[in-house]
TrEMBL record:
<protein>
    <recommendedName>
        <fullName>GMP synthase (glutamine-hydrolyzing)</fullName>
        <ecNumber>6.3.5.2</ecNumber>
    </recommendedName>
</protein>
<dbReference type="InterPro" id="IPR025777">
    <property type="entry name" value="GMPS_ATP_PPase_dom"/>
</dbReference>
<dbReference type="Pfam" id="PF02540">
    <property type="entry name" value="NAD_synthase"/>
</dbReference>
<feature type="binding site">
    <location>
        <begin position="226"/>
        <end position="232"/>
    </location>
    <ligand>
        <name>ATP</name>
    </ligand>
</feature>
<dbReference type="Pfam" id="PF00117">
    <property type="entry name" value="GATase"/>
</dbReference>
<comment type="pathway">
    <text>Purine metabolism; GMP biosynthesis; GMP from XMP (L-Gln route): step 1/1.</text>
</comment>
<dbReference type="InterPro" id="IPR014729">
    <property type="entry name" value="Rossmann-like_a/b/a_fold"/>
</dbReference>
<keyword id="KW-0332">GMP biosynthesis</keyword>
<dbReference type="GO" id="GO:0005524">
    <property type="term" value="F:ATP binding"/>
</dbReference>
<keyword id="KW-0067">ATP-binding</keyword>
<keyword id="KW-0658">Purine biosynthesis</keyword>
<dbReference type="InterPro" id="IPR022310">
    <property type="entry name" value="NAD/GMP_synthase"/>
</dbReference>
<feature type="domain" description="GMPS ATP-PPase">
    <location>
        <begin position="199"/>
        <end position="413"/>
    </location>
</feature>
<comment type="subunit">
    <text>Homodimer.</text>
</comment>
<dbReference type="InterPro" id="IPR001674">
    <property type="entry name" value="GMP_synth_C"/>
</dbReference>
<keyword id="KW-0436">Ligase</keyword>
<dbReference type="GO" id="GO:0006177">
    <property type="term" value="P:GMP biosynthetic process"/>
</dbReference>
Length: 666
């Protein structure tokens, strides 16, 4: 544990909550440094750390469980300001003699709470504030000497000690759903703990540069730059720290980058004086094959990537080819292992995830899947890995990147999968049509109020809608909507696994659909049509279906070009309208289907799906409702620009939550 001599550091004791990372980010955004420590840390260690305050996070356990994590209550006797959140709230209450009981039903959701605005924690806030409450335990009686400073209905939601700087809240001020949570942290850090916000980006940059210089001594740094934010910022920082003569920056263009991405990253780094070696390996990738092991232990050689359609084979070929190409490129630089350090853009959340026990340096496991060449392996084995961004969250890396002078569209780029656009082209040679294609198609039609002959199917649809209760009412007399199954499949989540199932398309006779109806249908359809896991809205005239043919699609340069252009339209508009951070991710997907093709003429056109996704944990999430986080005018502009791209049939909007759909389509 670092001592905080001359620094201003708050200790966050991690009780295991998935929101722990967010507390860390909130405090750091207020320019106060943090150390993440295990809940079991001793009072002596906390004293030695010279912290300004202690925050105890939420956690999945009950403080009364026999396996509740150990905690040294002498921490409360150090005289430090303490803020307990959720589990921390109950821990404080229990330690000081209050009682907690398990409630029959969990309480999860955003709700209004009453706040005592004379309490230092809530200074400047309103008496009623919207916060996120998630908990199964609840406090019956407050701890001795503590005052109740917040309530959620009849539930005690906040406690404070009148004389000692100890505060506890049941809700989660660290999440965005707690609208003024940030102000509570500000009150705690600056008003109660006396912090002054010394942890500025400029100071941090100087600290990181010093660390790079100390670690490297007179050695060189090798950095593989993907075109993403992290490795680009890492390269720019190294360049500033030790100069371009001592940084070897390599980028491999695999053919699946975004439009002009490789050129943009090269130009942006070169503007800072760092030459980026760009290796165009796209032909190697398109033509690559690999060996795949079957379950029975035998192996087979795949077709070439540009002839392959199976998603797993595509991924494997790309991963293996990357290693082969990287090996060749790295060795062509003749770097002596003893003269080099490997630099990578590992971030703080990566570290917290891999070692939430102690956010020490253990990120190797995370990045090993990529850039696994002999030299890289050797450097890792010898511990010659430099991770200058290990103290940064994503937003902070973006800020640092801007400060270092990287181009805005580069530092604002959204997360992008390793195999790039290759997994956003659904490849196929034949339609996906199973035995239940026609019956599922009819059920879909019945759900949107179209006339269907089969009374059993009509009944099934009616039952599903009535199962929604009151919220299903708008679907009872629906008219003007159409639904059709598409003969393609995309990946979705089912139970603990992933499965490939149909995509269903909704269309509407009116120019502008009622988005609330579409989202309602997207909820009900996968519940009744078990072989559908993704629902899209398709702009344009109603698709009367059934659609039974696909457009043969492989990973070839013209196909990729189509997707690159569509992806570029979406990303450009997101950037121009400041939506990159509001919406977590927006994969743009090329679907091998032209719903308007006539049955006897094979089509060469494909559809483009816009998949918006909002999530804080990346495990579950929801699409954006147009008109809310994504203004309708921006969306219309995306659609009209994509429609102009050559070979594009329909533009579609993915309406599926996760589960049942995943973020990506394959
Ligand atoms: N095309 C590429 N050329 C060079 N290096 C690459 C390439 N793709 C990946 N890498 C290297 O592998 C690392 C891990 O790849 P991954 O796609 O998981 O990136 P990441 O963790 O999202 O980081 P970034 O934001 O830099 O892309 C990258 O940080 C980079 O060092």
């Amino acid at each position: 544990m670092a001592t905080s001599e001359g620094r201003e550091v708050v200790a966050i004791l991690d009780a295991g909550a998935q929101y722990g990372k967010l507390i860390d980010r909130c405090v750091r955004e207020l320019k106060v440094e943090t150390d993440l420590l295990p809940l079991s840390v001793s009072a002596d260690e906390v004293r030695a750390g010279n912290y300004k305050a202690v925050i105890i996070s939420g956690g999945p356990n009950s403080v009364y469980a026999s396996d509740a994590p150990p905690f040294d209550s002498a921490i409360f006797e150090l005289g430090l300001p303490v803020l307990g959140i959720c589990y921390g709230f109950q821990l404080i209450n229990k330690t000081f003699g209050g009682s907690v009981h398990a409630k029959e039903h969990r309480q999860d959701g955003q709700q209004h709470v009453w706040l005592d605005t004379t309490c230092a924690l809530f200074k400047g806030l309103s008496e009623q504030e919207l916060v996120l409450l998630t908990h199964g335990d609840s406090i019956d009686s407050p701890a001795n000497g503590f005052s109740i400073v917040s309530r959620a209905g009849s539930i005690i939601a906040g406690l404070a000690h009148p004389e000692r700087p100890i505060f506890a809240v049941q809700f989660h001020p660290e999440v965005e759903l707690s609208v003024h949570g940030r102000d509570m942290f500000r009150n705690f850090l600056f008003g109660v703990a006396g912090c002054s916000g010394l942890y500025t980006m400029v100071d941090r940059e100087l600290g990181a540069i010093q660390e790079i210089q100390d670690t490297l001594g007179d050695k060189k740094a090798l950095v593989l730059v993907s075109g993403g934010v992290d490795s680009s910022v890492c390269a720019a920082l190294l360049n500033k720290a030790v100069g371009h003569e001592r940084v070897v920056a390599l980028h491999i263009d695999n053919g699946f980058m975004r439009l002009d991405e490789s050129v943009k990253v090269k130009v942006s780094l070169e503007r800072l004086g760092l030459p980026l070696h760009v290796i165009d390996a796209s032909e190697d990738f398109y033509n690559a094959t690999t060996e795949i092991k079957r379950k029975d232990g035998t192996t087979y050689t795949t077709k070439r990537l540009k002839e392959t359609t199976a998603p797993e084979e595509k991924r494997k070929i790309i991963g293996d080819t990357f290693m082969r190409v990287a090996e060749k490129v790295v060795s062509s630089f003749n770097l002596k292992p003893e003269d080099v350090f490997l630099a990578q853009g590992t971030l703080r959340p990566d570290l917290i995830e891999s070692a939430s026990k102690l956010a020490s340096s253990n990120a190797d496991a995370i990045k090993t899947h990529h850039n696994d060449t002999e030299l890289v392996r050797l450097l890792r084995e010898q511990g010659r890995v430099l991770e200058p961004l290990k103290d940064y969250h994503k937003d902070e890396v973006r800020e640092l990147g801007r400060q270092l002078g990287l181009a805005t569209d580069l530092v604002m780029r959204q997360p992008f999968p390793g195999p790039g656009l290759a997994i956003r082209v659904l490849c196929t040679e034949e339609p996906y049509i199973t035995d239940d294609f026609d019956s599922t198609n009819m059920l879909l039609q019945a759900l949107v109020g179209q006339t269907v002959e089969d009374p059993k199917i009509v009944q099934k649809a009616a039952n599903a809608i009535s199962g929604l209760g009151d919220i299903g009412a708008p679907l009872l007399h629906l008219s003007g909507y159409h639904a059709t199954l598409l003969p393609i499949r995309s990946v979705g989540v089912q139970g603990d696994g992933r499965t490939y199932s149909y995509v269903a398309a909704l269309t509407c006779e009116a120019d502008e659909p009622d988005w609330s109806i579409l989202f309602l249908l997207a909820r009900v359809i996968p519940r009744v049509c078990h072989s559908v896991n993704r629902i899209v809205y398709a702009w344009g005239a109603p698709i009367l279906g059934p659609v039974r043919q696909i457009t043969t699609t492989h990973l070839t340069p013209p196909v990729l070009q189509q997707l690159k252009e569509a992806d570029d339209v979406v990303n450009r508009l997101l950037l121009e309208n400041n939506l990159i951070q509001t919406i977590s991710q927006v994969p743009v997907v090329l679907a091998p289907v032209d719903p308007d093709a006539s049955l006897d003429m094979p089509s060469t056109r494909r559809s483009v799906a816009i998949r918006t996704f909002i999530t804080s944990d990346f495990m579950t999430g929801r699409p954006v409702v147009p008109g809310e986080e994504l203004p309708l005018a921006v969306l219309r502009s995306m659609v009209s620009q994509i429609q102009k791209i050559e070979g594009v049939s329909r533009v579609m909007y993915d309406l599926t939550a996760k589960p049942p759909g995943t973020t990506e389509w394959e």
